[in-house]
Structure formats: C-alpha cells, structure tokens
Design brief:
The protein is of the alpha+beta class. It is built from 7 helices and 4 strands. It binds FE2/S2 (inorganic) cluster.
Length: 164
C-alpha cells in the first residue's frame, strides 16, 4: 500500500488543514490526526508536525513527542521498499540468518539502515504471526512465508530495476 498523498504536492498543507478541521473537536484529535497523516502521506513530516500543532492549538514539541513515542508513527519518509525480517524463534530456526545475510550482502546495509538512494530499508520485528510458514518477512505491507535467499535475491533485483 502506498501513500495517497505526498508532501511534495503543493496542496499538502490544504490536505492537512482539511484533516484537522474534520477532527479538531473530537476527543483524541491529535492521535486521529497523526493516524490520518500516516494513512494519507505515509509518514509525519516536520512541517506537518508544526502545522498540526498550530491547528490543534498545541506546541510542535507536544506533537513531536506523541509522533515519536508510538511505534506505529513514522517521522521520516519510508524507503520505497521496506524489508521487515521476523526475529521470532521459529524464523530464526528456519533460516532467517541466511535471509539477513543475503540482504546485507546485496544491499550493503544492515538491520535498521536504509540504502543511500532510499530504495530499500531493512527492519526487524517480533513474531509476524505466521510461524508455520517460517522463515517469514514482511515486504512493505505484504507478508511472505517460506522465503528463500533466491526469492529474496530476485525480489531485490526486480525492485532495483535490474533485469532478472
Ligand atoms: S517466529 Fe516468525 S512468524 Fe512467528
């Protein structure tokens, strides 16, 4: 799933104003606004943080504190493809180390990093909930099970724009 809107769009401020106008009198308006920004833009930019603060009569540090406290919010533009490795026990037993090494070798980055061109990021998570299909990972918003290093290599090549 990709964000519907971009902060590069000259109308982004109008969109944020519209979101805040819809929810400003609702309990939990700040959380609602931040969830909407995540859904619509994919992350919460610094200028959006400042604008939301102004519109909801808060200070930018108050908004920033909430945006950085909760795991579901991001304050940085996500990579084009996020490869999320499962750190759970079933996946570790079933070959996750080989998958991680394949990624690190192909992309030149490790868990918690992103490539310089922002095409890929590698992250890790606790159990993804599909242990019978270990080793599992999440590619952007899609779960993938029984992933092999060869499949991963193919996926990275495809998304890098390299002919496979
Ligand atoms: S341990 Fe990886 S999906 Fe459960």
């Amino acid at each position: 799933m990709h964000a519907r809107l971009s902060y590069d769009d000259p109308n982004w401020e109008a969109e944020v104003r519209k979101i805040c106008a819809e929810i400003e009198n609702v309990d939990g308006a700040l959380m609602l606004a931040l969830h909407r920004l995540m859904e619509d833009f994919g992350y919460i930019s610094e200028p959006a943080t400042i604008l939301v603060a102004e519109l909801l009569h808060l200070t930018p540090p108050q908004v920033f504190a909430v945006a950085t406290y909760y795991h579901e919010f991001r304050t940085e533009k996500p990579a084009e493809t996020t490869l999320m490795l499962c750190r759970g026990p079933a996946c570790r037993i079933q070959g996750m180390v080989a998958l991680r090494k394949t990624m690190e070798k192909l992309l030149g980055i490790t868990v918690g990093e992103r490539t310089a061109d922002n095409k890929f990021a590698i992250e890790s998570s606790g159990c993804l909930g599909i242990c019978p299909h270990a080793p599992a990972m999440q590619i952007d918003h899609d779960l993938a099970g029984r992933v092999t290093p060869e499949e991963l290599e193919r996926l990275i090549a495809e998304r890098s724009g390299v002919p496979v």
